[in-house]
Structures
1.
Amino acid sequence: MALIVQKYGGTSVGTTDRIENVAEKIIKFRKAGHDVVVAVSAMSGETNRLIGLASDISDRPTPREMDVLVSTGEQVTIALLCMALHKRGQDARSYTGWQVAMQTDSSHMKARINNIDDHKMRSDLDAGRVVVVAGFQGIDDNGNITTLGRGGSDTTAVALAAALKADECQIYTDVDGVYTTDPRVEPNARRLPHITFEEMLEMASLGSKVLQIRSVEFAGKYQVPMRVLSSFEDQDVNNPGGTLISLEENDVEAPLISGIAFSRDEAQITVRGVPDQPGIAHKVLGEIADANMEVDMIVQNIGDAVTDLTFTVHRNDHDKALEIVQKLGEELNASEVTSDSTIVKVSLVGVGMRSHAGVAAKMFDILASEGINIRMIATSEIKISVVVDEKYLELAVRSLHSGFELDGEAAA
Amino acid sequence: MALIVQKYGGTSVGTTDRIENVAEKIIKFRKAGHDVVVAVSAMSGETNRLIGLASDISDRPTPREMDVLVSTGEQVTIALLCMALHKRGQDARSYTGWQVAMQTDSSHMKARINNIDDHKMRSDLDAGRVVVVAGFQGIDDNGNITTLGRGGSDTTAVALAAALKADECQIYTDVDGVYTTDPRVEPNARRLPHITFEEMLEMASLGSKVLQIRSVEFAGKYQVPMRVLSSFEDQDVNNPGGTLISLEENDVEAPLISGIAFSRDEAQITVRGVPDQPGIAHKVLGEIADANMEVDMIVQNIGDAVTDLTFTVHRNDHDKALEIVQKLGEELNASEVTSDSTIVKVSLVGVGMRSHAGVAAKMFDILASEGINIRMIATSEIKISVVVDEKYLELAVRSLHSGFELDGEAAA
């Protein structure tokens, strides 16, 4: 008998029928003798409906009131799910964020969880009840409603699992696990039975949108095993499959490469021919940061007393960033400022890289043999990222996928 | 400068445009120097949408979870109204039932308010803020969400006014006040500038559905002056009009009759020729009460050693009540059990009756002169009710309205 925290996202609870299916799934785990605590999102579409109401009224709705507004979405789901459990004879109790004392800081719309009071939940579990908690929301020290930001229900689930010392945190979603790469780009992508927290962080932040990145950080920090599962499949309760995300130590034979992540939302900006002097990078990137934009990759070349600086930002920030850099370019006597918003980033991820040299060389070789020009390179301990022209995205992903022997059976 | 509690119902906040209008209205009162606390309902249609979701899942949804579900409706409105106030530069803060410590008993879906913590509201008012509270909802001693039942937002407003010792509780609705009778039946019906709590209770319970009856009881008990106003009209802040509901004492010249109430939802059941013995009425009416039906008017005639008993119930309860009484009629050897579900009740209401004899005689005279047969009569200190055939409803209301000189300018 285990204590399992399950999280069901918006699509999984998108209709009352689907909520009834979730109730059936929970009861299967109960019948197998497990204790179950559930975190749920708002029914799909509901959060957007609420945000639409707010934007009808104001271009800049107050963050405190946004949290009061959108937190109703999950509150609706917890009530409906408990009703569906009750109808099936399963005792259950719903809790909003404040009822379960999901204490957060006061950063409305992006609050961080500080503490959870597990008292009520423990006594419910002891009484044989399923506990259903509203995801995504909390309460600050002054009794204000807070939310964790989009995707925060994953974090709620992991925080509940950490507080209750659960055996596993199961994230039910509309895919059946984490894949070696996006199956829409590479039909031979394989589901990974296991991946480490570290790899998952690189995969998630690089554009594989299965899990909310903060929840993975949280799970890694508190060593809560997470499992990604399909809410539309019927799992074997004792061997549920999906993808298990846990510590590296459990994995005796880590593969060289776990997966290939990519991101289409990239843009590149280059300043050329700036007279070389200390602090150029800081000056340029500092102003970008001050304007609340995030810089991802950075490359600086120093030539004959002049410097070239290239960096990437989110594609939505391209125009704003370019404007700033053009102004700076004049001040700094740059010979040229150029930009390109038709680039993408492709990354190899794998803890196996740590102990194997030559991964980068093999990667560049594969890309070169396909005639794909690499425009930027960045490496870390467990990933290698390259920037290439947008038009090469599919070719790059597929050639790397087969080149590093990730191909499996074609995904369904 | 006064402290005013305002309540806006579902129609008044039915769209984001209407919520913006409400914000404008509130700001007018603020600009005139008044402190304003607002209680709001769910946007019209929202509560029914939520109940619809619950009934998709269960025929008998758990009351605790129903309250978790439907209380989200008002929570949406408080957030949107605060956003609309903020956009106009008016500082404001929203509170759910639990945030303002609206303590109730644990009767889910029909809870009663025990206590309110005015601490936060006071300091907001001192800081120049408008306070916006979710109507209809509270929290019990165990931290469960409760609701006050349909129409409960009026009660929330009065409870807030009582706790804060407000100068006035203004109920904004889709009519501009309380009328002498329903203008759809009598176009000459007049708006009453003033009515007592007692009269309003009789008017409300008899079918003039302007205010939730419990809120009027509450206002009377705590002597909170209430005012019914149209949310679609532009009031003079210092002389807002509508209908003021307050204690009798303020009214030096109470009119004989304040208004004529009526109810179409009536049915009558008669048991004839029961051998007269003590406890017949108790036996019959006791079984009706045990079956959870409410009996309104009761008439018993005792003839030559036999008794006739007639009573009225809500028209929806007619079939169920008749079945019970037919069974009893056999046991009691009644000569006949009859019923009629095409009757209505018409009532004269007025505190002036207390000091004037002859109101009943005049009423019966007016009805007789129109050829309207009176089937039952019931009187109290400030009202006289008669049961007549359904087909005479309009004629009875109109002839009484002009006979007691209630006619005014035709209502718009």
2.
Amino acid sequence: MSSVDAFEEFVNTLKVEGAKRYHTNHPFHKLMIEGKLTPGQIRAWVINRFYYQRILPMKDAAIISNCPFIEVRRVWIKRIINHDGENGGLEKWLRLGEAVGLTREDLFAGNVLPGVKLACDAYLEFCKNSSWLEGVASSLTTLVAPDAHRDRLEYMKRYYPWIKPEGFEYFQWRLIEGPEDSRMALNILRDYIKTDEDRERCLKALIFKTTVLWNILDALYMEYIVRGRKDYE
Amino acid sequence: MSSVDAFEEFVNTLKVEGAKRYHTNHPFHKLMIEGKLTPGQIRAWVINRFYYQRILPMKDAAIISNCPFIEVRRVWIKRIINHDGENGGLEKWLRLGEAVGLTREDLFAGNVLPGVKLACDAYLEFCKNSSWLEGVASSLTTLVAPDAHRDRLEYMKRYYPWIKPEGFEYFQWRLIEGPEDSRMALNILRDYIKTDEDRERCLKALIFKTTVLWNILDALYMEYIVRGRKDYE
């Protein structure tokens, strides 16, 4: 088997193992796309997930801080700018917040569930303490994310007509930017993965990342569905 | 005393304590600006100091990875680009390397003294493991650096005419960029230092950084002056 085939097979493994554990399978996501969440539950999701969004530029900087290769750093810095830039991911998520009736202050106040904070902080620590290559691999939930964004776009528009349309800009942007991000990360893995052990660690990094996303929804489900908290109704 | 005065006084303390320990006082630097280094000793300095240059964008990324404030990250990311960009600090230092008769491969091979590696790696670890505010403060050797760059420009041109003039572009650039970097860092400290303890830790961070730069020259002096190593003659 040629090394091109071997890499394609590895990418396929990442997709299969990622999709299997991706948070689109989570009961909270299912309730969301079935139109069964209350406005307060949607707001709780937006506010808690913003904590994750805020971690993203920091974890990308952690990856750069571990990377001795200028050609990788020059590419990866775009990820920080994509989130922190003037019309970047954080700004777009803040607009989603406003579209569901929250203020920017609500989102920045960081009043998030302890389980959400724990999961997101663990992701940042993972990127600080693992190799930069594992950090890059952990970003590859982008391989399976477009379906989730497409679902959110379609079903949130259909079932939650009270959400102002400008709120959906984030998901539209991710539909375009996500595949671009995947290509960037895969090009790097293709060049820098040398051994079976590298491949194994990269796969584990991606699986770890799916756990982060899954745990965020666990905390939300437990508090806002099972325990019925209503602070954003 | 107003808080403006207090901040000015703090900046003055940083300058005084920084200048006192700055590596322009080091015997290796003195030999350099007195024209007493051999071509091999100049080359050894260029190649070893390149390891420090390569650490800079990584330590700036480490500062961003620790910083939860988007407005600080948006400013500080320029530091990474200043070094890693197409015509950035690393590229300019590589040209200095060529101007003293080294190849780019020589510089990237990273064949540096263990003491230099230890000091530079310690700086990166410091920025990873300290608060982002201390990381920012540690950059403020830029407050006293312009004199060093001016000296290098003047005396290296005078005493080492064998160095090709395009090699001096790095120092010319730092003369302009350094004061800009200082302003950036001081504006951040002004906004985010809240307590005497913050001030104390920021001063200690700057003093730590002077030790990093000093240690680099210790290792060079011991190996290339005292022990008389001649691998780059």
3.
Amino acid sequence: MISTNNPRIKLIRKLRDRKERQQTGLFYIEGLRIVAEALQTGAQIEYLVIAPGLLSSPFGKQLLQSEAARSILVIEVSDETFLGFSNKDGPQGLGAVVKQKWATLDQIRKRSATWVALDAVQDPGNLGTILRTLDSVGGAGVILLDQATDPYDPSSVRASMGAVFSQLLIKTSLQEFAAWNHANPIPVVGTSGTAQLDYHQVKYPFPSILLMGSERQGLLDQHLKICDMIVKIPMIGRSDSLNLAIATAIVLYEMFNQQRV
Amino acid sequence: MISTNNPRIKLIRKLRDRKERQQTGLFYIEGLRIVAEALQTGAQIEYLVIAPGLLSSPFGKQLLQSEAARSILVIEVSDETFLGFSNKDGPQGLGAVVKQKWATLDQIRKRSATWVALDAVQDPGNLGTILRTLDSVGGAGVILLDQATDPYDPSSVRASMGAVFSQLLIKTSLQEFAAWNHANPIPVVGTSGTAQLDYHQVKYPFPSILLMGSERQGLLDQHLKICDMIVKIPMIGRSDSLNLAIATAIVLYEMFNQQRV
């Protein structure tokens, strides 16, 4: 057994911090389901960490003996050490330090599927939930514009329910995205409360990129300018906006419904 | 100025605790927008609490002079005292202790609109987000079945963006709800991953009650038994489920789209 002072164990705690994740290009995941997803999608796992006393499930033991896990370094720690860095309420005794994976704009053309571009998304839970929904409709990935939250934040990873591994992630600026889109004219669909078109009464191009504004501001003029189509989601209540992940899902499912007719 | 030891100020801190909210039937809200919503919807406000040094916005000052606020007790505290109990990152110097409002099953017949029934919803953020979405589609309210989280939890109130005031809230058991529904046959629509009907290819009755399962288990047999129609939301990704608030929103907007044709 190795101790809390081991640098690999110390790193796990440090990876809660965005700066540390950025500098190392790593992130930490925990739980049977998410580690299984990492193994199955071929994520690059630096090392697994297990607490044998907590890892009681047969599924967990099978996972460790799987082909994908066999060549990976496994670090055994005491239950106490594990509980010391665990983020979870019901720790399952299995975690992994994983290499982040980032895609580039030129990969958009290679995946003929729906993409979501998010301007300065702030809430990691929203980002993870959007990844999860995008996975469900067969989407390709997310393009993070400007000052966005980190998809590898523990709250985002948790909310994504594994989709952080299956969806491609691109980080860029509005300026670069606009320049790329100019040279690669894949239709961009924006949403705005003041748009004329009802999101439910238009025919969406496929593939397309759904561009969503930030939680606070929605889409700004500079974003609306690069849209090929701007739609609104009607609302008849007292509130003038929907939660970002909800609004994204409503349009994604409308697009998906049209694709699968 | 009154001090931190004042019982009304002490109560604000205590109201973070569910037990205290249950025993007193009160909850605490903070911020200009949500307090404005409470005033505008006629919520029963026990007292307002203000920190003059933090309350710089003209909108906040107008609020306090409004007709609705005039007869309400206002407690002034120092900025320091306010920051001591504030839940917010950017405290705006205005809060309120508000009386909870609960509706009963017999009110369902009086509001010919969509209702959502939630079995044992666990996450207050999900519950608040569902209230917010329901407000947007002109829904009536939420029926909380069995061991549900508290709609007056600060995370739920925050996520609801004020809809906790405009939507009716009913707390009951599955058994009572089933008995009531038997005598008052308003159609119940359930969702399940194993249903035959595609949610997008059915015609929904109006009004109806959308019944959603908990985050962990979905709808159980005893819930499916009381449904008049069970639909599934198709998914083609790696994941076999959507976030609860997302799944609810997708069906709510489909119902809403049919209503507004």
4.
Amino acid sequence: MPPQPKAVVLLSGGLDSATTAAIARSQGYALHALSIDYGQRHRFELAAAGRVAQSLGAAEHRTVRVDLAEMGGSALTDAIPVPQGRSASEMAGGIPVTYVPARNTVMLSVALGMAEVIGAADIWVGVNAVDYSGYPDCRPEYITAFERLANLATKAGVEGTLKFRIHAPLIDLTKADIIRRGAALGVDYSLTHTCYSPNPEDGAACGACDACQLRLQGFADAGLADPIHYFA
Amino acid sequence: MPPQPKAVVLLSGGLDSATTAAIARSQGYALHALSIDYGQRHRFELAAAGRVAQSLGAAEHRTVRVDLAEMGGSALTDAIPVPQGRSASEMAGGIPVTYVPARNTVMLSVALGMAEVIGAADIWVGVNAVDYSGYPDCRPEYITAFERLANLATKAGVEGTLKFRIHAPLIDLTKADIIRRGAALGVDYSLTHTCYSPNPEDGAACGACDACQLRLQGFADAGLADPIHYFA
């Protein structure tokens, strides 16, 4: 039997990256999970990433700290209030305040470094162009440009020992599609964390921020129950 | 008088990035220096970066920690011995052990995030394709690919409020050219740190590692004295 190919999977602890990891596993990859601790205001996401990695039988789970909070500029790392209770049309209006400058570029760069170190040609990331239509680094042309860069940027890419591929299997799926796909693959969504404004005591989701609303609507559209606890 | 344009300058504390910063300053940019603390084995570089930023009158100097040591894979972050006393032909033979996977991609990504936050279209980096011919991420085609990515990856790039440019003014210069250029611009090279294997007590340079040898040869070829102290 040939050795199982390795995949570096960016795992945030959220629903999208958990589904992405399950898809990679279903295609026969050994999962090498990578979480980026970018100075989030809450740590529940990283704890969720660890639970998800374990539940999917990942070969390893590394967390690399990148102190993006030093850069400022986003509600996710700064003290800017997270929007609550916005309508779908408000969310659709342009790039949201929760946008973190260059976040996916930083995360994919670290994933690329790890991939080269462990000899993985395949990097999986749960970016999505539908629900996050305002994020420039969630578009197919961005992913293509990064893949091209990856093969120019590295010893393995230039010497041809690894031909890096960036997999973004969720990129054109709706949230409901993602949840159906993950449910079919046995993803335990009770382990995931999505909320931007969780209860500081236990990490329970608020149900009102953009991320919670998209999640709840996705489960409703998929005809499934969201197994996590909401405090509001 | 129009406001001075801002430049994000990646400052390692070494000779190349100090020269790059001086070139940016000579072209009228306000310097916003950025150092990446990527888990180096020694801290003398970062201290040197602070001194260089101050001596060049930088508007600010930020240090962002990116724990690349978590990834492993290089003599600069791992416990692999740093080569000593290699000849120029040995150094020219392929990609050196001191190569850090995806380092420039990670550093430029963080610089891009900072640039977007502070409203700087111009990112300056001291990569050099001559002395580091083995590093894939020191080639012009890599810089061009990153610039393209930068304008796809960011809100400011996509909305057209900033047209990002990556400046690599040293890319085709020899070490002697770089030193002559910096000396003409008044760079105080006594503030810089180059050595891969410094004295752990005071950071004095070894004079024998690849980096020291390239530096010493560069000063010799430029007909100038290297003002730093070598312990060997």
